[in-house]
Amino acid sequence: MVQGEVLQQIVDNVSKCILGKRREVEWILTAMLAEGHVLLEDVPGTGKTVLIKALAKTVQGDFHRIQCNPDLLPSDVTGVSIYHPKTESFVFKPGPVMTNILLVDEINRATTKTQSALLEAMEERQVSVDGELYRLPKPFIMLATQNSVDFEGTYMLPEAQLDRFMFKLSLGYPDHRTELDMVTSQKSGHPIETLQPVTDMETMVQLQRQVYDIHMDDAVMEYAVQMVRKTREHADIKLGASPRASLALIHASKAYAMLQGRSYVIPDDIKDLSSYVLAHRLILHTEAIYNGQSQASVLQSVVEQVRPPIRMEQ
């Protein structure tokens, strides 16, 4: 598929700036194709911001960054209407959310009121300011980061907001060889300074539309839905994945298949994506947590219970 070639060029280009994380770059590009948002949870200094900037530069997308803190107001995110004396009318001054690629850095440092201001943008691709609706540019993807070890001065993300993130990812530390290559490659400057674009926003919008044409056999669709439904029946899970999770898993699998150059989804696409799409949506019983269980480990047991289809039409 021609789409697969273009998408692999994007992955190759971004990977010049973030070494050893090709798989993670593919997941983020998959989310963008599937019109989903990504939560990156990791320790500082692992390349989260660099990856997002490299993606924006590669696809020539408008890029804005919000640095979250307790003083950040909802209007600092969405924008504000300012009275213009000459025209005797209010003029809308767009906030940073009016962009293609939005980086919300340390989202858990913003108050719950400010976090809630992002919900409409994430789900409806619009913001409401003083009773007026303003549509966000197309495409729009929000990538939020949060520190996994620093809890001082932070606020937990509500379940409703976590459910609106298609993926939750972690980059992790590079291995020894990759870290050495990274240090060596930056002797004379950072690779992102000379990074060249390989496509544009118009092409990305077209690719997003083409995701819907990727074939998914009924048996594979049943496999995805069964996996989500099983999370609602597991003894260790207090709150399972929502129907929104089923839609996210299916659409993300189509986008990932296109990224791999296929015109159809295979069961392994569902299985590979399940931990990134479903785990963060689960709430475990207190006893399961005390027994050392995690969302990832419980989800793995769910995946093992659901039998993948053996045959399917392509």
Automatic annotation (TrEMBL):
Residues 37-167 form the ATPase AAA-3 domain. It comes from the Bacteria. SUPFAM superfamilies: P-loop containing nucleoside triphosphate hydrolases. Gene3D superfamilies: Magnesium chelatase subunit I, C-Terminal domain, P-loop containing nucleotide triphosphate hydrolases. InterPro entries: ATPase_AAA-3, CbbQ/NirQ/NorQ/GpvN, ChlI/MoxR_AAA_lid, P-loop_NTPase. Residues 229-298 form the ChlI/MoxR AAA lid domain. Pfam families: AAA_3, AAA_lid_2. PANTHER family: METHANOL DEHYDROGENASE REGULATOR, MOXR FAMILY PROTEIN. This is AAA family ATPase. It comes from Marinicrinis sediminis.
